[in-house]
Structures are given as structure tokens and as C-alpha cells.
Amino acid sequence: MTTATTAAIAGAPPAAVGDAAPAAPVALRGVGRAFAAPDGGTRDVLRGVDLDIAAGEIVAILGPSGCGKSTLLRIVAGLDHPTSGEADIDGEPVQSYDVRCAVGFQEPRLLPWRSLERNVALGLPRGTARRAGRAHVARLLELVGLAEFAGHRPHEVSGGMAQRASLARALARNPEVLLLDEPFGALDALTRLRMQDLLLDVHAAEPTTVLLVTHDVDEALQLADRIVLLGSDGAAPGADVRQTVVVPGHRPRDRGSAELAELRGRLLDGLGIDRHGAARGIQATTTIPHFPY
Ligand SMILES: Nc1ncnc2c1ncn2[C@@H]1O[C@H](COP(=O)(O)OP(=O)(O)OP(=O)(O)O)[C@@H](O)[C@H]1O
């Protein structure tokens, strides 16, 4: 067990700020989640999800819209709870609002009246000494290329810069597990590519475990060690792991490689998307269709 985990469980002070980010393995064992349905019954969204993520691994989750990707991420973060099964981090069950995790969303969710620097500082573990906290925030702003904009407020910077500040805020916690829910989904195509490269730089500097939900097959191929396809077998309601794909090659990968293009095709097939479009009246695209309940 890492120092930070021990601290979280025992209520002891967190690991010193500025330590290399720890990384912990994540295990999902038979995770199911049902929600109340309008007819008074329940509706299975996830069922029997089994997944092991190694410490420091980047795993991308792909699946049709509404299949339960965000729900799975929330369960790992302790923001939601499974109806069956369990989620563990470093062999210990996830707790409510688990302090071992940090979550990044599609929108930066920065406080508009605070400077970027003070927004990033919000992510520091409770009880961080002021001077150590300042130094850590400065290092993170440097890492995400915002050192010169530390004093700017969110409305004074671009959407991509705000999202970088949001990533720095998530990292400020020194998370063992970084959970990213479509973190670049709202950005323009070019900024999105830059952010993907930045995430790889950040991961090289702070090799934490990353679980990334994305709708973008190419993004998953560029960033992940493994891609997990969530979906339903059609026989029973609810989604589980349909396929796990190891992405070949070292990061950063050649976005134009034939090997990745072939894998992209296979993933699109797995998602039920016709890559040539016309045959089934669907546009060939990397955008993923809605989950059929
Ligand atoms: N708190 C809740 N109460 C009831 N239903 C919920 C709740 N949270 C999620 N759901 C339902 O669970 C299903 C899965 O939602 P979730 O957001 O996890 O899917 P997703 O795969 O992330 O979707 P998308 O790709 O569109 O973001 C949806 O049908 C959603 O309406």
C-alpha cells in the first residue's frame, strides 16, 4: 500500500506535496448499477463489469452514448455506488468521495472569481503547508504551460487554457488515480490534439493511473495502453466489458500509422459503426451512436 493510501485510510496527513505522484491499481469486481425507472421498477445500466487496471496504466473506455461509462467512472471515484460487486483501489474498497482519486470533466469547472493559480490551489490536499502548496501549484502551472497566466481569471483565457488549469487542479491532489470524463470533448479539433499531447507529457512527469472516458476512438488509440469497449450483448439489459484491446507501440504514437488505422477499424466494428457508411445508412465516423435500451 502506498503512503497516500495509508494516510487516506488512517486519516493521517497526506503525503508531502511535491512528491512524485503515486499510482495505484484499480480493480472492478462484478460491478453492477441499476437506477430507479419511471415505471417504479429498476433499470440495469451496468452488470458484472470486471476490470483490472495496473498502477500507472492509462485505460480508455469507449462505448455507445448512455451505456454507463460516466457511471463507471463515478463508481471508481466514490461519487456513486454499485448495486452489486465492488471497486477497489490498491486492494482497498473505494470510499465515498475517495481522496485517492481526482476527477476531470468535459467543462473546466473553475471558479470564475479566482485566478488560475488559486483555482489550481483548490486541488491541494487538505492541510497542505502554504509554502509547499505554492511551490507545487507553480510547478503544475509550468507543467501545463500556464505559468505566465497564473494571475489571470478563467474568463481571460481560452477554453483550452481553462481546461489545462482544470487538469492542473486535478493533479494538485497528487492523485493515485486520475479519472477523466471526456476531458477534451468540448475543445476544437486542434486544441484537442494538443491537449492529448499534454496529457502524455503530464503522465510521463506524473505517472499516475488514468481511467479516461472518451467518445473519440482516435483519442483512445493515441493515449491508452488498453481500450475497453463497454456495451450490451443484447440478451440482457445493462452493459459490461465486451472487448479489451491492447494498443500497440509506445507513446507518443504515430497518428498516421497503418497499424493504428487497422485497429481503429476493428474498434469501430466493435462499436457497431459501419466504417464505409453507406452500407447500413450510417456515416463513417468516430462519433459513437446511442446505446439502445
Ligand atoms: N442518477 C441517475 N439516476 C437515474 N439514471 C441515471 C443516473 N445516472 C445515470 N443514469 C442513467 O444511466 C445511463 C448511463 O448514463 P452514463 O452517463 O453513465 O452513460 P455514458 O455512457 O457516460 O453516456 P454518454 O456517452 O452519453 O456521456 C443513462 O441512461 C442515464 O440516464
From TrEMBL:
Residues in the signal sequence: none
SUPFAM superfamilies: P-loop containing nucleoside triphosphate hydrolases
Single GO term (MF): ATP binding
Occurrences of domain ABC transporter (ranges): 26-257
Tree of life domain: Bacteria
Keywords: ATP-binding, Nucleotide-binding, Transport
Keyword field contains Nucleotide-binding: yes
PANTHER family noted in UniProt: ALIPHATIC SULFONATES IMPORT ATP-BINDING PROTEIN SSUB 2, TAURINE IMPORT ATP-BINDING PROTEIN-RELATED
Protein name, entry field: ABC transporter ATP-binding protein
